[in-house]
Amino acid sequence: MSKNSSNIMALVPKTSNKRETVCIFGTGDFGRALGHKLLQSGYPVVFGSRNPWPSSLIPKDAEVLSHAEAAQKAAIIIIAIQRQHYDFLASLEETLHGKVLVDISNNLKINQYPESNAKYLAQLVPSARVVKAFNTVSAWALQSGTLDASRQVFVCGDDTEAKQMVMDIVRALGLTPLDQGSLLAAREIENYPLQLFPMWKLPIFLSLGLTAFFFFYCLVRDVIYPCVYENKDYSFFLAISIPNRICPIMALVLLALVYLPGVLAAIIQLYRGTKYSRFPDWLDKWMLCRKQLGLVALAFASLHVIYTLVMPIRYYVRWRTEDRTISQALNNKTSPFDNTNGWLSDSYLALGILGFFLFVLLGITSLPSVSNNVNWREFRFVQSKLGYLTLILCTAHTLVYGGKRFLSPSSYRWYLPSAYMLSLIIPCIVLVVKFVLILPCLDKQLTRIRQGWERNPQYSEQSNYIINKSAV
Ligand code: NAP
């Protein structure tokens, strides 16, 4: 009973305990915003400033003193000053002895200085305990309270107790501390806010390049060719027809590119007979951005759906239907119902609908809020098994779209096949190779390799040696 109650006591926050004073050096944007938030959370705040007198900008419950006076009042000092002004801290060495100095600074460029700002601070004041924190939170977010985007606070430092003290403050402010280890991690933490969608670069550039290629390809085939040979102006195709040709092509190609690196990795592992030697860098990078590639593919697929929905209300489509009906009436001739075409059309639509449904399911399961709630096996089932099923359905959708026209010589213009035929190349390669890889003889071998078996252990020892040597 007593054990239980002590456990319960441990879980109850010590709200009645008075919070320790926190000192902030610098009364700039971040210092003031953090001071305000700390005061709201019950921490007495004292500012250390070059101008130690109250101002209307500074929270009124906070004290403003000189740096030396303010430092004496607290065990934790948050340095809300730009790195280039740190020098004066060396003259306060004696006052700062044993204090926890929190470096929150950011740089303008990635790896701007030879050492991290936190390391530099630790060198300037060697007797202090330096902790890196808060640099990923913006002053605006602290002030406005909309912290959803930056609730995580990376914390690192060599002194465990000091790091714990800072993490307690982070939690008290309603943020989530993430311990990143020793002060060596500060460099990476400082580079983090300077990165601009690092995982999205390859998918975006690839999509832009492929979109531009398919746009010009369709422009040549569908607009320039009829203009040159039939003297027809189809330039209005640029608004809906060509985008609606490019979107499904891009969705299919990018979806195939999500699964291609996995297939290549399997071939490499089978060839090497081990999983213990590193993949080439380009393959590693490609594998890391598969989720982003998939999401871009989903965006193209969604656009394709929207474009398709407006097809019946297009003037060109309505005109063609009316024209055909009127000419049939004038010639007193109707075309008989073609059952094969009926099947092709319905199968094409059904495959597209099912493919898009699974595509959306894949996108939803890649959201952190969903993927965090499924275990590894469930996640793999959705992303791999359902992913391949989506690729099969979307490839079949495109193949059936070609239907009877597929590979017919009349569909070539200037020897160029229809764009949808090009889009089938990568998906078909991925599916055929995957099919070969799941043949029992290869699948068994691959499973063994992935469980740690090696065909030639000497090879991997040698390669590990090479990897280790190059890492040194
Ligand atoms: P700021 O508005 O320019 O304020 C910096 C403060 O440093 C000044 O108000 C001044 O305070 C003090 N200072 C300036 N020159 C000094 C000198 N020569 N010697 C001593 N103190 C000096 O900058 P900030 O936006 O608050 O940023 C402060 C730090 O937080 C930076 O390292 C920044 O990278 C980091 N940070 C900022 C944000 C943000 O959203 N702003 C987000 C994350 C991290 P006194 O006049 O009171 O001395």
From TrEMBL:
It is found in: Endosome membrane. The chain crosses the membrane at residues 204-229, 249-272, 293-317, 347-365, 386-407, 419-442. It is a multi-pass membrane protein. Residues 21-107 form the Pyrroline-5-carboxylate reductase catalytic N-terminal domain. Signal peptide: none annotated. GO terms for cellular component: endosome membrane; nucleoplasm; plasma membrane. Pfam families: F420_oxidored, Ferric_reduct. One of its GO terms (molecular function) is ferric-chelate reductase (NADPH) activity. One of its GO terms (biological process) is copper ion import. Residues 249-394 form the Ferric oxidoreductase domain. Keywords: Copper, Endosome, FAD, Flavoprotein, Ion transport, Iron, Iron transport, Membrane, Metal-binding, Oxidoreductase, Transmembrane, Transmembrane helix, Transport. It catalyses: 2 Cu(+) + NADP(+) + H(+) = 2 Cu(2+) + NADPH; 2 Fe(2+) + NADP(+) + H(+) = 2 Fe(3+) + NADPH. The keyword Oxidoreductase applies. The keyword Iron applies. InterPro entries: Fe3_Rdtase_TM_dom (IPR013130), NAD(P)-bd_dom_sf (IPR036291), P5C_Rdtase_cat_N (IPR028939), STEAP_metalloreductase (IPR051267). Its cofactor is heme b; FAD. Belongs to the STEAP family. This is STEAP4 metalloreductase.
